Amino acid sequence: MFTYAPRPLLSSQLLRLSLLLVIWLGLFCWAGPVSAQFHFKDYGPHPRLTPPDAIASRSALLVDYQTGEVLYARNPDARFLPASTTKLMTALIVYEKLGGFNGSVTIQEADRAEPSNIPVVPGETISVDKLFHALLIESANDAARVLGRYVAGSNEAFVAMMNQRALAMGCFNTHFNNPNGLPAPTGTHFTSCSDLMRIFRAVLKYPEMSTIMSTKEYVISTASGTHYLRNHNRLLGVYPGMGPAKTGWTVASRHTYACAVTRNGHTLLLTLLDSPDKWLDAQILFNWGFAQVEAPPPAPSGAAQP
To answer: Which of 15, 125, 181, 232 has the most CB within a 10 Å radius?
Structure first.
């Protein structure tokens, strides 16, 4: 005759151990979101060289700053949304019109902008110097509107100035709809990696702006309080030699980037547009690029081999 024998209960200690094992296996196997790939820390003197074609960006341009040689290009003249890399043109025009960071601006209601902002308060007066730091470190959209209006009289007049300057620079695949890169009607706001590179190089001619773009943190005080500006460039202070840069991102544009890295006295410039992960793409391209420019020259034909 069979009798029912209940399964013995696990001890509480064994249950805890089993639960910990399940949690550990889950964490070990979870790949994480795409953004977690930022932890691709291949920064040593001899990094793993992922082929440059492995990048996911739809457009890219890697250039030797000293010689102008193009080290890598993918769709460099194709038009894409620039997002906040737009602010490079804004900074360039305002800096040249004012001859630096001179003056102060009284804020108007029309200067407000979301989402990234100081925020400005209508009626307060803010120095151009503070606005430039907010523009290039925190990527403040309201700072872009304030500075543009200050030099042109209105937002519309400044946008016209931006488009005139783009044409004068030979940026024929660029058109602006606003000074900060916020979403605009389709077909009204775009650039290419080649054009963005021209604009970036023009900005880098001014050491004061390069210094700001290389600053990780900065504090300003305005009527809305004390603001701790933090650079959006996540590779600054992490990737060896990372220098001045301007980042950008919107849902439509995805990641955009203009950045410079200097290593052993050699500088490479990179522009990226429409990337799912600019941090990973930038590391791949800079690792590969520096391996090319730092490689020993080939031995002359007929020379004795060691």
So the answer is: 181
